[in-house]
Design a protein that fits this description.
Layout lengths: L1 H4 L2 H18 L18 H10 L7 H13 L1 H10 L10 H14 L6 H17 L3 H14 L5 H5 L8 H11 L2 H11 L4 H13 L6 H7 L5 H14 L5 H5 L7 H20 L3 H14 L6 H15 L4 H6 L6 H11 L5 H10 L5 H14 L5 H7 L5 H15 L4 H4 L1 H5 L2 H13 L4 H10 L4 H13 L6 H8 L6 H12 L5 H9 L4 H16 L4 H14 L2 H11 L5 H10 L5 H12 L7 H10 L3 H17 L4 H14 L3 H11 L5 H9 L7 H12 L11 H11 L5 H17 L3 E2 L9 E3 L4 H5 L3 H18 E4 L2 E4 L6 E3 L6 E9 L4 E6 L2 E7 L33 E8 L2 E6 L2 E8 L17 E2 L6 E10 L2
Antiparallel strand pairs: 1-13, 2-5, 3-4, 4-13, 5-12, 6-9, 6-13, 7-8, 7-12, 9-10, 10-11
């Protein structure tokens, strides 16, 4: 059988089958280009693997699972073929193979996956591991064995544990596998290993809790090698064997704070292992010894850790330890003790704290009170009530919220005396308690305490009544307005808005027209608007205010006009429009401001008239703002909104006014408003706002999928050059590419590496004359040169200006192509279609006609219809459509080449080839490409 497999006849048949498979996969062409003569001598298995890898990386996890299943269906040899395509750094691109192997590892490790598949796959990985060409590939394969392997991989991995370059990944894999065999393999490798490998093995043995390793680790815990000693001690602590206690319990007094902390933490880990093994007494003894010995302030975290472990181990039996912690001058440590105490329920625990509270300093007493409030045990309430009278302010301040937490509404009467006796902080604390109380009790208590309260307390009580909208006590607030106190009166004026009634409208007007300052007028305007809102019907609301308006002049007249905007109605609107012609600048300004804040579209015509006619530009600016706000807030259909915005855009005279309208377009989410915003990109004065508006119209938002389609993607890309916010620009770019994906476009460039690209080998005519061997050799050399000059930096394909063009590994026939490009001063490049030059790219200073023309045409048009380049150094977008011999090009959403026949540069007498590679032209100048997406036209 072996002889027959390698016979000349057999080889011939295999080669013929291979060629047949390649030819069968190609489309039938009427006019095959010369390049079609190339021969592929890969085996059927290799072709199947290539076909699958061409689809990697997949667009979803489900698709990757399907590709993994297809690879597994090829058996062990299929997996080995994928592994043979793994290459080290600087060698052939292998991203698709790595993606595939990673996908296979996840697929066979899935919950409920077939064990037979996993064993087949891991067996192939281990076979590939021994044959891998270099350490980088071996390390990658080991990382995949770590994902998918189990006990069957231990023997193979063990061979690499002592390897200087592969020891650490092999050790990690064995640790993950975590079988007794893996532990034994690591233990057996401990003695012969050195350096970082030895440290990695020690750490792994610790993580595995390997008691068999203790005797070997103990000598290392006393070595002079710092790294080795630290690793051994940590491992011994993690294992928790009592034989290691002497080594771990020694915490050198003369060592640094950091070293002492490390040693203490290790010892606590050892203590935890004792508790986990059922040796709670040993754990408790260690914790209490450490709490006693580690008394320095910088050792507080370790003491706190020991206290936490103690409570975790013995629970309420650690209460005495927690209570003793209050003797510590270290507040951080005391705080941790109180946190732990709050979790221990029961009256017995509460009693211990009540017995202790009088014996500690005020600071600690306040902390205990706070903790008792958090614990929620009401048996502590009587003692906390006593602490409301404590001589220390810090204690009283802590007792107020604690009493309220435990006593709730029933405790509120006990807090009220503090309003008269306390200072500002205590008053504020009582106020918070009142605001947190449910029901009407807080209002009743606040109103009842008001008459006898000092001014600071009255202010607090007024704020409570206002927050509860206690209109039943509005008269109390009105009386407070008459108070001449500088604290009480402003608080009462501010509160009126929340408590005023409709019947209070006349006296509110009187107060407003009599206001002595703008500081008093503003809260009274709010109160007047609130009082009016409680009268049914906008016309009735406005009557009294309009009557007062007829009597007033000056500043108070302007105050009344401002209020009318919050009332609305036909009468009020008529009055305000009339005041826009007032000879008093204050009243006129107030009227325009009122119209710009009008509650409905009734003010729109008046605002539009101001935009058209106002001499004072601040008035027209306010009017534009108000008009746009009204339109966007209205319930009009989108087409009417857009029409209204176009009206005000036409009327606006200043750039800042027009920009307000352009920004308002973003709220009308239709294709027509999108196109309207795009038209404004031609004007530099509105370009930034127009780009942002257009992008926001098209972008998805909650409840709205946004605009879609290829044209939307092209136009979104046009906005990118003018968006000022980098984060938003990235979102827009991502949305454009998402739309392309939705429309069936696939990325030719993955933003990470050169997968799917190759170097240039001659022209199509010369390539067609090469033998397969010559073509392969030339391709390898071209790829080496290509990797020297084409790089991927931050998701951008960067050419350094040297070397040859970059080509797709696949040929294409009819297609649509999106590609972003950027070129520097004096730059020159192009996009070759089907291997033929070229859609031109260059600096407009070098070619004033601009980019996008079919530069090499001799018979048909070679220049673009119009120049449409963005400034040099900015990104540009081509949308290229190739159908038969005809090419259409949009540059930055501008049609620059319209269905022009592209001539065959290489063979002028023949049409352009039916298929061919896409090439990014190298022309001795640096340039960048990104977002390369293609959709084939079938």
């Amino acid at each position: 059988m072996e002889t027959m497999r390698n016979s000349p006849r057999s080889l011939f048949v295999r080669r013929a089958l291979s060629i047949f498979a390649v030819l069968a996969a190609l489309p039938v062409l009427r006019l095959a280009p010369p390049a079609a003569a190339a021969v592929d001598d890969r085996t059927p298995l290799q072709l199947k693997v290539t076909n699958i890898l061409d689809k990697v990386p997949a667009r979803s996890a489900a698709e990757m699972d399907g590709l993994a299943a297809r690879l597994l269906s090829l058996g062990r040899e299929g997996v080995l073929e994928v592994c043979r395509r793994l290459a080290g750094p600087g060698k052939a691109p292998d991203a698709s193979a790595r993606y595939a192997v990673d996908g296979l590892s996840l697929h066979v490790s899935r919950p409920g996956g077939a064990e037979k598949e996993r064993l087949l796959y891991v067996g192939a990985l281990l076979a590939a591991l021994d044959k891998a060409p270099d350490a980088d590939v071996k390390a990658f394969i080991i990382s995949q064995v770590q994902i998918a392997g189990k006990g069957e991989a231990v023997k193979s991995l063990a061979r690499y544990v002592k390897d200087p370059r592969l020891g650490e990944p092999a050790t990690r894999a064995l640790l993950t596998i975590r079988t007794p065999g893996a532990e034994k393999a690591l233990f057996m490798s401990l003695g012969p290993s050195t350096g970082m490998n030895r440290i990695a093995i020690i750490k792994a043995l610790g993580d595995l809790g390997s008691r068999a390793a203790v005797e070997s680790l103990l000598p290392l815990a006393d070595t002079r090698d710092d790294g080795l000693r630290e690793a051994a001690l940590q491992a011994l602590a993690a294992i928790g064997d009592r034989r290691a206690e002497n080594a771990l319990s020694t915490i050198p007094i003369v060592s640094s704070v950091v070293e002492r902390a490390k040693a203490a933490s290790r010892y606590l880990l050892f203590a935890r292992r004792q508790a986990e093994a059922g040796q709670k007494d040993a754990c408790v003894l260690i914790c209490r010894n450490m709490i006693e010995k580690l008394a320095a302030s910088q050792e507080s975290p370790v003491r706190s850790e020991a206290l936490s472990l103690l409570v975790e181990t013995i629970g309420k039996d650690a209460m005495d330890d927690l209570v003793r912690a209050m003797d510590s001058p270290d507040r951080q440590y005391r705080g941790r003790a109180l946190e732990l105490a709050a979790r221990i329920p029961g009256q017995e625990a509460t009693g211990k704290w009540l017995d202790r509270i009088s014996e500690v300093p005020p600071e600690a007493r306040a902390d205990i009170i706070d903790m008792l409030g958090e614990r929620g045990d009401k048996t502590a309430l009587p003692l906390l009530l006593e602490n409301l009278k404590d001589g220390e302010k810090a204690v009283r301040l802590t007792a107020i919220p604690a009493v309220f937490k435990l006593g709730g509404r029933e405790a509120l009467p006990n807090l009220m005396p503090l309003l008269s006796a306390g200072d500002d902080e205590e008053i504020a604390s009582v106020k918070l308690a009142l605001l947190g109380a449910p029901g009407e009790l807080a209002v009743t208590l606040a109103a009842g305490a008001f008459a006898d309260a000092p001014p600071p307390a009255k202010k607090a009580l007024i704020e409570v009544l206002a927050a509860r909208q206690a209109r039943e006590h509005a008269d109390l607030i009105w009386e407070a307005v008459k108070d001449g106190n500088e604290v009480v009166r402003p608080a009462a004026l501010a509160a009126l808005e929340n408590v005023v009634r409709g019947d209070d409208l006349p006296r509110t007007i009187d107060l407003l027209v009599g206001a002595s300052s703008p500081a008093e007028a503003l809260p009274l305007q709010n109160a007047l608007a609130a009082a009016a809102s409680r009268i049914p019907g906008p016309e009735k609301r406005a009557d009294l205010i309009l009557a007062a308006l007829g009597k007033e002049k000056g500043a108070r007249r302007a105050d009344l006009v401002r209020v009318l905007a919050r009332i609305g109605g036909a009468k009020a609107l008529q009055a305000v429009v009339a005041e826009t012609k007032s000879p008093d600048p204050r009243t006129q300004t107030a009227a325009v401001y009122a119209l710009s804040n009008w509650p409905d579209m009734g003010a729109s015509e008046a605002l539009l008239d101001i935009v058209r006619t106002a001499d004072d530009r601040k008035y027209s600016y306010l009017a534009v703002e108000g008009y746009v706000r009204l339109v966007n807030a209205s319930g009009m259909p989108a087409d009417q909104k857009l029409g209204s915005l176009k009206d005000v855009l036409e009327a606006a005279r200043e750039t800042n006014e027009k920009n307000i309208v352009v920004a308002g377009l973003a709220n009308v989410r239709t294709g027509e408003s999108f196109r309207t915003a795009l038209l404004l990109l031609s004007d530099p004065l509105f370009r930034a706002k127009a780009a942002e508006a257009a992008a926001r119209i098209a972008m998805p938002m909650p409840g709205d999928k946004g605009l879609a389609g290829v044209e939307t993607a092209r136009r979104l890309k046009k906005t990118e050059a003018f968006l000022e916010d980098e984060w938003f620009r990235e979102q827009v770019e991502r949305r454009a590419t998402d739309i392309l994906a939705e429309e069936g476009f696939v990325p030719l460039f993955n933003d990470e590496d050169l997968l799917g690209w190759k170097g240039l080998v001659e022209d199509p005519v010369k390539r067609a004359k090469m033998s397969p061997v010559e073509l392969r050799a030339a391709g390898q050399k071209a790829d080496e040169d290509m990797r020297l000059h084409w790089k991927v930096l931050d998701g951008v394909l960067v050419f350094d200006g040297k070397g040859q063009s970059l080509c797709t590994t696949r040929d294409y026939g009819d297609f649509e192509l999106f590609v972003d490009w950027k070129i520097g001063p004096g730059g020159d490049s192009g996009i070759y279609l089907r291997g033929s030059p070229q859609v031109q790219i260059w600096d407009p200073a070098k070619g004033p006609e601009g980019s996008g023309g079919l530069y090499n045409n001799q018979i048909g048009p070679s220049k673009p219809l119009v120049p449409a380049d963005n400034p040099v150094g900015s990104w540009n977008t081509f949308h290229i459509l190739v159908a038969g011999e005809r090419v259409t090009v949009y540059l930055n959403d501008v049609l620059v080449t319209n269905g022009v026949i592209m001539e065959n540069y290489w063979e002028r007498s023949r049409p352009i080839y039916a298929t061919g590679q896409i090439e990014l032209q190298a022309h001795s100048t640096p340039l960048d490409f990104k977002d390369i997406y293609l959709r084939e036209i079938k």
